[in-house]
Amino acid sequence: MSEIAALLDETRTFAPGEAFVREAQVTTRAAWEAAAADPEAWWAEQARSRVEWHTPWTQVLDWQPPRVRWFLGGTLNVAENCLDRHVRTWRRNKAAFVWEGENGDRRTLTYWDLYVEVCKFANVLKQLGVRRGDRVGIYLPLVPEAAVAMLACARIGAIHSVVFGGFSPESLRDRLDDAQAKVLVTADGGYRRGQVVPLKRNADRALEAAPSVQHCVVVRRLPAGAADESFAEMRDGRDHWYHRLMQHADPHCDAAVMDAEDELFILYTSGTTGKPKGIVHSTGGYLVGATTTMQLVFDLRDDDVFWCTADVGWITGHSYLVYGPLANGATCVMYEGAPDWPERDRFWQLCERHGVTIFYTAPTAIRAFMKWGDHHVGKHDLSRLRLLGSVGEPINPEAWMWYRRVVGGDRCPIVDTWWQTETGAIVISPVPGVTHTKPGSATHPLPGYAVQLVDAQANALAKGGGLLTITRPWPSMLRTIWGDHARYEQTYFSKWPGRPDLYFAGDGAKLDDDGYWWILGRVDDVLNVAGHRIGTMEVESALVEHPAVAEAAVVGKHHELKGQAIAAFVTLREGVPASGELRDELREFVAAKIGAIARPDDVLFSADLPKTRSGKIMRRLLRDIADGRALGDTTTLADPSVVASLKEQYESQES
Ligand code: WTA
């Protein structure tokens, strides 16, 4: 709480530096004015000028809340927009990806190289029977083939579903099964902190119970012939090496002409129930959102070297590592591994070596860098950096100031970008040549967006604290939840009866006296651990599957580096004794079920959980206990003594 108070006392402001403004492409408020005067016309203009269409649309927007369609009747292909139009120009020989593996491997792919790879892999997918509208799972380390696979799907009109390589076999299986994927693209392994992540082995376990998957394509990432062969046991008929299939693949592949509203991809994200939601994005609107914001927010120029550190398994990797940059013909750095491998200066070494000019990362990483010390940054020449970005969680002013001073040499503007898997593209962010920034504030909505702060009854608020909503549709908004349109309506548009036009983001926010937005974080049962969304229910469902567990309640506790960490309160089945070993076992059990990102920091055993008289678990109280705060009002509890004992246990464990 003290942190939020500190955040709201923040008064420092930073005007864009003169040198930056001199070169910046957007230096006036004209775009906001034009967009405010006629948002539909403004978006249509972005769509017309930034995207190549086969057939122009006949209607910009059809909004029947909460059902939305943009650019009706328009046809296009996203891969063509990302590749073909560049290979027709001088950009043909420009680097699209400059890739580094954690182990030091390096590759550069020009737009031409990428174009050829994508066409070939598109043909491979076709040969494996993938047709327009079919789903393809992608479970890869951060290697160029991840982008190749995504774009190859886009080229033939297949729908990709990228699953973060850190997810467990079970999480992968659930996602493949929900989407009824026909093909899975994976790798023998990937590198993370010097260890091999056994992706193919995980995939094998997932495929045992994902019968829709007929073929599995395996990228060879590990050294051929090494003892690591065991990482990829190939099953005849089902499994195929990527490099073998590519050897004879035809490098010509016509791009499928897609409708603007055809699905481009599904990306699963956590919600307030145990089951992740398959967020569905469209072809036309999504591309318009990604490409427009990429240019506006990052002031992207042809000589930039852009590095977004996100994995393709998250929306940031989709919009700002693949689609946004490539649609704009940018050069992107892609790095497979951890920031502290082999040393804590790895990121800065990469920035120096590749002459990175724009660097986009998460507050968790920034806080870790800050803790590791300035000298790691100081070892490298970062003078080419001209712009810094932050995404995924609230950034505390202290980390913001450090980022600006130590990484940005006091010369680079910072764009703190608020958005979500569901929004597809950045919504609230500075435009670096125009916006005066405040440390910790995402500042203002970009042109074309209508963001509104409301109270619990959906009344509009001009300032103060409230809930973040979006009142008008935007092109890159999600279209539905895969296979569950009712859940789409229920999750995002039914908080206020009679207002199906109001998108509820799930975040709390504050508007200060100068009209700056301060994002305070989730107000639902979704945690943000190191910038990753995790549903408390997901972790609870995992815990109760353990035979020793009767009941579990999971809350977020404040964590210095990760923003939030997971604390689990567990009641055990009759006769099962609590022990340190069991605690460790439960932590590992959750990691194995969901993925390491969901491993609870704390597991607390309790004879009972604090519940209201109507049987609801009192999470607020558990949060207070987990954070070591004074107990709130407990008079509505069924058994107040439960809480006292929990708190006591917690404190003794921490000391
Ligand atoms: C949080 C990531 C504060 C927020 C792009 C949102 C942020 C959730 C910011 C979406 C930011 C994202 N400041 N909070 N700049 N950016 N968030 O879907 O709670 O993984 O609802 O998308 O992250 O997470 P998601």
Describe this structure in words.
The protein is built from 21 helices and 31 strands. The strands form 8 sheets. The chain has an 8-stranded mixed β-sheet, with helices on both faces. A 7-stranded mixed β-sheet has the order 5-4-17-16-18-19-20, sandwiched between helices. A 5-stranded antiparallel β-sheet has the order 22-21-23-25-26. Helix content is 33%, strand content 23%. It has a domain at 526-654: ANL, C-terminal domain (GMP Synthetase, Chain A, domain 3, 2-Layer Sandwich). The site of 5'-O-[(S)-ethoxy(hydroxy)phosphoryl]adenosine (WTA) has 23 residues, from α12, β20, β25 and β26.
| CATH domain topology of the domain at 526-654 | GMP Synthetase, Chain A, domain 3
Strand line-up of the largest beta sheet: 12-11-8-6-7-14-15-24
Q: Which ions, cofactors or small ligands are bound in this entry?
A: 5'-O-[(S)-ethoxy(hydroxy)phosphoryl]adenosine
Could you tell me the strand content as a percent range?
Answer: 15-25%
What's the number of helices? 21
Number of strands: 31
Structural class category? alpha/beta
CATH superfamily of the domain at 526-654: ANL, C-terminal domain
Q: Based on the structure given, which CATH architecture of the domain at 526-654 is correct?
A: 2-Layer Sandwich
CATH classification class of the domain at 526-654? Alpha Beta
Question: Average pLDDT value?
Answer: 94
Distance linking N and C termini? 22 Å
- The low-pLDDT segments are none
